[in-house]
Every structure is written in C-alpha cells, then in structure tokens.
Amino acid sequence: MFAYFRGRLVSALPEEAVVDVSGVGYRLLISTFTYRQLPLPGEEVLLFSHLSVREDAMLLYGFSSEAERQLFRLLILTTGVGPKLALAVLSGMQVHDVHEAIMANSPEKLYGISGVGKKTAARIILELRDRILKLSPGSDTITGSGFRQSESVRDDAVAALLTLGFPRPAVQKAVTGILEANPALSVEDVLKSALVSIHNS
C-alpha cells in the first residue's frame, strides 16, 4: 500500500522514527541498523515501508534500504517469526550477513540475536533458503523488479484476507503457494484463489 515515505525526520529512537510528509506525521517502527542510517532531525529522509495489518492495530515499518525491507518480508513468512522478531534479526545482523547465514546453512550464526533460539534459527534457514535459491539471477533477484512486484501483490492480498478475519498462518500459506505457482497474478486473482484454497483446507 505504501512503497516509501519521503519527508522531514521529526524524531528518531532506536526502535521508531516519525516522518512528516506534507504536514502528516507517520510513525514507523525501525531496526537499529536503520536508526544508525537516519539523518539529523529536521533533515529530509526516505524510508521504504511495510504495512502490517492486525486485528487490533495497523503498524508501519520503515527501512533504510530496499534490501532490508525485502529481507524483513521474507523473515515474516517464516513460521513463528512475526514483525517484532524480524526487526530483532535486522537489528542484530546486517542484511548480507543474514543472507550468508541462510545460504551457508549456518543457523548458529543467528543464535546470538535476541529472541532467536536454536529452533527459530533452524526454521529461518529451512524455510528461506529455498525461497532465495529459487530467485533467478535476472528479474527475480532479491532486489529485482519482478520480485518486488510479487511481494507487493502478496502483501496486499494478505492484508485484505486478514481484515476478513482469516487466521494469518492459513492466509500466508495460501497466498504464498498461489504466487509461487504463478507470480504474475493480480491481487484480485490471488484473493479469489486464496479464498477457495482456505475454505477447502
């Protein structure tokens, strides 16, 4: 829904930043890494964003780079990893280090991150390694336009289904499976297929 926010940095803490965009203040939850990249308050800033829709809240997450946002989106696809823990991972390790740990099948490199135990680290490696390997060197690399488009459709579809009251695990499983089979689908097509999949499961 929101690709990024460009505006004046009003305030910043290690866990959140407030950005003024045309007179409207947006609060974005951030990683420690993004916090270190922020300019001084009053200066212009651009943060890539991710909207998380829950039953009790709508939360915005901000990232200093597209690569950080995309890794965040991959992490929250992992069973048992929510946005809070995904931010902890991004705060504990740089993006390329997380990629290397996943590709090298080295869960022990993730153990030192707050909230990440052996089981969680193993799940991150197991569930994300194939996703990254399946990305082709061309348009679907971790920073490629095809991957960004697919991720945007996924996020919009997941958000829409969550607002309808479906449980997150079922929603993420259905939407992810549909887009893996056909990444070119529109949000509307994904929603139609996901509704059928969830009701039949």
Produce the secondary structure layout.
Blueprint: E1 4-13, E2 16-21, E3 24-29, H1 32-37, E4 44-53, E5 58-63, H2 66-75, H3 83-92, H4 95-103, H5 118-134, H6 145-163, H7 168-181, H8 187-200
Parallel strand pairs: 3-5
Antiparallel strand pairs: 1-2, 1-4, 2-3, 4-5
Helix pairs in contact: 2-3, 6-7, 6-8, 7-8
Describe the structure.
- The protein is of the alpha+beta class and 201 residues long.
- It has three domains: 4-63, Nucleic acid-binding proteins (OB fold (Dihydrolipoamide Acetyltransferase, E2P), Beta Barrel), CATH 2.40.50; 68-134, Orthogonal Bundle (DNA polymerase, domain 1); 137-201, no CATH class.
- The protein has eight helices and five strands.
- It has helices at 32-37, 66-75, 83-92, 95-103, 118-134, 145-163, 168-181, 187-200; strands at residues 4-13, 16-21, 24-29, 44-53, 58-63.
- The protein has a five-stranded mixed beta barrel.
- Strand 1 and strand 2 form a beta hairpin.
- It starts with a strand and ends with a helix.
Give the strand tally: 5
Q: Write the element-wise H/E pattern from the N-terminal end onward.
A: EEEHEEHHHHHHH
CATH topology of the largest domain: DNA polymerase, domain 1
Number of helices: 8
- Any guess at the CATH architecture of the largest domain? Orthogonal Bundle
Envelope shape: globular
Radius of gyration: 17 Å
Strand percentage: 15-25%
What low-confidence regions span 5 or more consecutive residues with pLDDT below 50? 136-147
Mean pLDDT: 84
- Give the N-to-C terminal Cα separation: 28 Å
Which structural category fits the helices and strands? alpha+beta
Helicity level: 40-55%
Describe the main β-sheet briefly.
Answer: 5 strands, mixed, barrel
Task: Provide the CATH superfamily of the largest domain.
Answer: 5' to 3' exonuclease, C-terminal subdomain
Write down the domain tally. 3
Biggest sheet strand line-up = 1-2-3-5-4
Q: What's the CATH C level of the largest domain?
A: Mainly Alpha
